[in-house]
Amino acid sequence: MALLHDRGPLSRRSVRLGLAAVLGMALIAVAARGVHAAPDRTTTPIHHLVVIFQENVAFDHYFGTYPVAANPAGEPQFTAAPGTPMVDGLTPALLTDNPNGADPFRLDRQQAMTCDMDHEVAPEQRAVDGGRMDRFVEETGNRQTGCRPETVMGYYDGNTVTALWNYAQHYAMSDNSYGTTFGPSTIGALNLIAGQTHGAVPADVTDAAGRAVVRDGTLVRNLAPAYDDCSRGQTIAMTGRNVGDLLNAKGIRWGWFQGGFRPTGTQDGLSVCGSRSTNVDGRAVADYMPIVEPFQYYLPTANPHHLPPSSVAQIGTTDQANHQYSLADFWDALDAGHLPAVSFLKASSAEDGHAGFSDPLDEQRFLVTTINRIERSPSWRSAAIVIAYDDSDGWYDHVAPPLVSASDTAEDSRTGSGRCGTSSPGAYAGRCGYGPRLPLLVISPFARQNFVDHSLTDQSSILRFIEDNWDLGRLGDQSFDADAGTLDTMFDFTPASPAAPLLLDPATGEPIRPTRQ
């Protein structure tokens, strides 16, 4: 169904009245056909993929000095095992004679909560400065009251992001993975599920400051999804297909599970997402943010009213929840033995790692609690967990991203004012990429152990793994899935000894020691 609207962004009310009937009829039709999950046929031993999609971390911000931690007294310790591979990280020269306006510096556990950096398309590209990577303080450093722009050069080590370093030590990580394009959270979330930020309706949208939010049909800034009762203000819809459409076509069980998705009430006939959680700084943060729920931008995969699944047994199928769930539904499905083949997990905002309202310690608690529980389940034997991030938050990273997708909009400045390379005729504008380097980890019995992958990948590589593992085909329409690098090099599907579960302490990130009997 094509949506045309030439008088500004779609309102929540107009979407509800104009499209709820269409969505309801589609779901009734699916239910009437008795669609259920197809037999689980995969091209690898992975039958359950869990993608934990976190927020706003550049690679050097978490792994710049891996595997060497400072190990001050009184903090969780990290000492690398012999033979641990090095990463393309912060060299002594970069640490003490950096080309930026400040040298990188270590952030301690007591500095877990920081200001949010500037991570819009234009500042991120200007920070790259033609590949010199030397303008982060000026371009993405936060200059708001109470923030220091030099903070953008800060990094954590294995005494704060201890769990992530231990996962990297025990399983596989990449030091050459990137955001598919530059820009903030919604852009990364759409690239994860569609390899695509083009197809926005309305095709041109500006914000109150007159800045482009959608340009020529491509999203270039965050904007809330049209098919979500909990959206506020301006909204957009996305046309085209996403991975949910491909999974549905094959009858594969799947779902997006997000903290705070379950409504806390209604107002004016619309669901309200009002739950809040307290972060390590003592601040209460709204659990649910619509701008990071990508399936709510597409009518065929949306659950506008945040309806619950009709039963635990139906989680992952096309019922009234339409594959969009609360995190609590994920645990119900796991405990009942109904884990979908593909699950996307989104933490509540206080635990998603986004600077300004989350932090590494709250994030660690979520990651470890989640991964421990999956590793203790029967599904672990055929599972893979991917930890990935939606954008860099503007944090300093020293590696210039490769230029694989050109663009020439007013927001671009990768290779000059209004330029990100030279775009090809007919190519969708506003998709300059790759964007910043981001962490990527694979946790699985089939993950290569204590392994650093140097293969070139991006966010749409996760999409491509899903397509290949379940033989779904490609999305087309200039989706980046067609050219994405593979994640296969992070796996060993014929291991002599599969990787054992690594259970960690959610507070410290250190391995849990078995209790002697």
What does this structure look like?
It is a single chain. The protein has an eight-stranded mixed beta sheet, sandwiched between helices. Strands 6-11-10 form a three-stranded mixed beta sheet, with no helix packed on it. It has helices at 12-32, 59-63, 92-96, 121-128, 136-139, 162-170, 185-194, 243-249, 327-335, 360-375, 459-469, and strands at residues 48-54, 105-106, 154-155, 172-174, 177-178, 200-201, 205-206, 212-215, 218-219, 224-225, 235-238, 254-258, 265-267, 270-272, 276-278, 284-286, 324-326, 342-346, 383-389, 440-443, 451-453, 457-458. Helix 7 runs parallel beside helix 11. Residues 1-9 and 20-38 have low confidence and may be disordered. The chain has a single domain (12-490), classed as 3-Layer(aba) Sandwich (Alkaline Phosphatase, subunit A). The protein is built from eleven helices and 22 strands. The chain has 517 residues and is of the alpha/beta class.
Mean pLDDT: 93
CA-CA gap between termini? 63 Å
Rg value: 22 Å
Number of helices: 11
Annotated CATH architecture: 3-Layer(aba) Sandwich
Instruction: Determine the strand fraction and express it as a percent band.
Output: 5-15%
Widest sheet: strand ordering: 17-12-18-1-19-20-4-21
The figure for the number of domains is 1
**Class per helix and strand makeup:** alpha/beta
User: CATH homologous superfamily name?
Assistant: Alkaline Phosphatase, subunit A
Give start-end ranges of low-pLDDT stretches. Answer: 1-9, 20-38
General form: globular
CATH fold title: Alkaline Phosphatase, subunit A
What is the count of β-strands? 22
Helix content: 10-25%
- Largest sheet descriptor: 8 strands, mixed
**CATH class identity:** Alpha Beta
